[in-house]
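Progress note, project year one: complex with flavin-adenine dinucleotide.
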Amino acid sequence: MGNPTGFMTITRQTGTELPPAERIRNFNEFHLPLHTDEQQAQGARCMDCGVPFCQSGMALCGMVSGCPLNNLIPEWNDLVFNGHWELAVRRLLATNRFPEFTSRVCPALCEAACTCGMTTGSPVTVRENERAIIEYGYESGVLRPVPPPARTGKSVAVVGAGPAGLAVADLLNKRGHKVVVYERDDRPGGLLMYGIPNMKLEKWVVERRVELMRAEGVAFVTGADVGGATGPAPDALAAQHDAVVLCCGARQPRDLNVPGRGAAGIRFAVEYLTGATKALLEPGHADGTGESAAGKRVLIIGGGDTGNDCVGTAIRQGCAGVTQLEMLPCPPAQRAESNPWPEWPRVLKTDYGQQEAIAVFGRDPRLWQTTVKEFLADENGHVRGAVVQKLAPRDENGRTVMVPTGEESTVDCELVLIAAGFTGCEGYVADAFGVQRTARGTVADDRFATNVPGVFACGDMRRGQSLVVWALREGRDAAAAVDEYLMGYTNL
Ligand SMILES: Cc1cc2nc3c(=O)[nH]c(=O)nc-3n(C[C@H](O)[C@H](O)[C@H](O)COP(=O)(O)OP(=O)(O)OC[C@H]3O[C@@H](n4cnc5c(N)ncnc54)[C@H](O)[C@@H]3O)c2cc1C
Ligand code: SF4
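Model obtained:
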């Protein structure tokens, strides 16, 4: 700790966020980083505490607190403060293979567990420090292609090029195994590419990493739906490779079984967000996925992060209004007594899309304790509205369930986006490989092995829908498990 009083004398300073009215004019990232000097000063706020909860990644009351990658946060905060940027890059990459992703999209579990945050009310800017370090790495050339010095003669197929697949491929390639990544979409990246909107993660950031991996020897085969219509069959992969790692995500969306669901204009959130990104990457593309929200009143079912991304995207497309339904009650503004630091704070978050809705339409788009009862269609079979009903919590054998109160109203809308979560992986991939699924729709055990010898799984496919930081952690641990299977030991 270079500056023992930094946490008292330096106030937290974050990069500039463009105001909502300005940033909704385009799909660009709207978070502008600090100047290098200012960022270095922020590193001085780290107290290098005896028990750094920020890097603990431990489960407390069912939720993880601190960084799941166990990033060596106090160490690189000190290197940032002292201007040892290259050393900071190397320290950061020791645990996190892709900090350019986490430093843009991670909810920063580290900052919620920061002791400085508990004592001063404002945690160290860990995520922005991380971003400054990795961007220095790219700009300075510290990050350049370094292919493995020797090859092991073993070959691994990675199915799915989301963050978990990229992480496992990167590490196994560095170890010297030949790695081929098979991806169903036309571009690698998984939800980093098609899901998380451009304003949170510009797509050149994903492409920059994929190019680096290509230059280091990882092969990517896109448009390959393994076990499906357009990809190699599992037998073919087994014949060509010594191990297979399934990283296909938890992509089965939870549907709504209500009258009128079949009306046109009712879509799943990821499909809509994919179309929005494709329209940016290839203006004028015409594969039918790019239906815009322009001029429409949009109803989003689901008050979580995916729903918020739909709000921000619909506003940028020029929607005429937006409403978000959330079944649960509005959380408190402050931590409840039953939710003390360093637990993850269960408090009200008004995310970027919701802030933009407030700026444009003058109200928070969320309707709490509300769900859809029925969709209404016009004479052409297109959705024109939804009957929504209020819910109230009720105790059922010690479990709280939300039940209808009888209060109903109608929301007019021309586009409905279902962002109600996911029910696990898509069954056809697991079935094609003969891999067993759990009741939660996940596969593989805590050693990343499935019931089929030589077939492993990681990321959301193993864990269920989660976070990018967890996908990277899963990729790191799964790479070690696969390496041990291939070599009889591992040094990953
Ligand atoms: C809209 C949205 C926004 C999100 N925003 C955030 C955020 O801001 N921060 C955060 O931390 N997390 C966020 N998440 C969660 C995060 O994106 C996921 O937890 C993470 O991407 C999981 O990584 P993964 O590699 O396991 O799976 P995915 O990213 O889902 O990647 C799976 C890949 O496998 C491919 N695939 C599937 N089947 C096959 C097959 N048969 N053959 C070949 N390829 C196949 C898919 O095309 C896909 O590319 C968000 C999720 C969603 C849905
Ligand atoms: S990966 Fe996330 S939790 Fe870990 S240090 Fe970075 S921002 Fe914090």
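The chain has a mean pLDDT of 95.
The chain is about 35% helix and 20% strand.
No further modelling is planned for this target in the current period.
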